[in-house]
């Protein structure tokens, strides 16, 4: 029995058919973002290795599909116990490669576990339908059968939660999986593969294949792989959706975000400022549901900006492994340079840089403090582009209608929130807004595990959302069986089209 550990190996290996391998030698460096130092490397799969993993998964899926639902449920319960018991180990591993605080990583693991908990009810989620006597002596029943081999391609920002969104449901539904995690923080995926194995998932049912564009494109083209779940940036999501769909696969590809939080004139401004700071700067803004734009409605602008700005000097920026840290570093030096560029360019675009989070040279890690940019308008880069860092923009608008029009004009539509004390405004906002996930006085409205997660527009390419009931639809195919048990004497030839 393999035991999950916190120490990342020198080269993080693929796991194919239960065997660890570093493949043909191509690797990519892995860093601790808090120190800026390389801590290891990750193997990068060739196209041939991806195809080999698909063959292994196809073989394993045949046996897994035959495994009874009661047994699969028991495995899900055991998986929940294993991950919960060692959540701290997994959280520390995430912090060491991603940089987020251990508390935040524990939150990620807890939200991932919600999906395991939902899947303990797989017997219920995989139920079909039956109609008796649709015509004389004729019955119809509908089944849900696994798709076969599916691929799950995940981003760096939730190295445990997003794999758990996808892999858990896919396996619960009887599929075999090829998980292709982010090459920037790859160890959590291997940790999870160990946990699934220990819980009783047979070798080959969950395979971890690391890699870059070469591996992803091989997945998109592989004829054995029947469905692809993807989460990442919008340009890559579009590429994955287009290429996988052209190859005849079922695809769901979640992309980037630019989430707006409206603050109405009647809102509790202290609570709204707390919510904005928590949602904009938590995990250094590297959450797809982070608030990146506050929309100040009517006259609240000055009071709100003052309240947000007042809170920022108190935020403790540092190594996520230090329990006093509230905000860790960014994922890479390139990300740091990119985010710094948005802060540096804001004033030149005509915005007010109220709080400048740039730090004096000397940090070894990839650190930047929280920044606040006021009087931002559409057309500025800081507004139009996804920054994915701790930079909060404030857009001032005259009224509710202008706020709604602003949000509905965005090409992204992942999450949004309204802060108000007025129920009618909140209800109207839910009705008017063209965004997939909406919060009322809730800044990060990530649905609980019994619902499904997904944005609209360029935040999601495809038809189904992640986890919850929609995931069981995505990872299964429906089959309808029409049955008659006639007496031999009733048999006759009829060339007419069957009607009931
Ligand atoms: P990314 O798009 O760079 O990478 C995502 C995955 O795609 C990784 O596994 C990566 O190896 C692979 N990849 C990268 N470039 C590729 C290419 N050119 N061709 C093929 N594959 C490629 O995203 P990221 O930086 O890891 O994650 C951050 C992004 O993910 C942000 O845009 C964020 O908004 C988004 N995200 C969205 C959601 C959501 O629910 N909509 C959730 C989490 C993250």
Walkthrough of the structure:
The protein has 500 residues and is α/β, with parallel strands linked by helices. The chain has a 7-stranded mixed β-sheet with strand order 15-16-17-14-13-19-20, sandwiched between helices. The chain has a 6-stranded mixed β-sheet with strand order 10-9-8-11-12-22, sandwiched between helices. It has a 3-stranded mixed β-sheet with strand order 1-5-4, covered by helices on one side. It contains 16 helices and 23 strands. The relative contact order is 0.14. Helix 1 (47-66) crosses helix 8 and helix 2 (69-85) crosses helix 7 (187-199). The chain has 2 domains: 10-255 and 459-480, 3-Layer(aba) Sandwich (Aldehyde Dehydrogenase, Chain A, domain 1), CATH 3.40.605; 259-440, Aldehyde Dehydrogenase, Chain A, domain 2. The chain is 37% helix and 23% strand. It is globular, with a radius of gyration of 25 Å. Strand 4 and strand 5 (37-43) form a beta hairpin. Mean pLDDT is 96; it is low at 1-6. The chain has helices spanning 47-66, 69-85, 87-98, 102-119, 122-125, 161-172, 187-199, 213-221, 234-246, 269-281, 301-311, 333-346, 381-384, 400-408, 423-432, 468-474; strands at residues 11-12, 14-16, 19-21, 27-32, 37-43, 129-135, 138-146, 149-153, 176-180, 206-208, 225-231, 250-254, 259-263, 291-297, 352-355, 371-374, 391-397, 412-413, 415-419, 437-440, 456-457, 460-461, 476-484. The termini are far apart. Nicotinamide-adenine-dinucleotide (NAD) binds at residues 153-158, 180, 182-183, 212-213, 216, 231-233, 236, 239, 254-257, 288, 386, 388, 414, 455, 459.
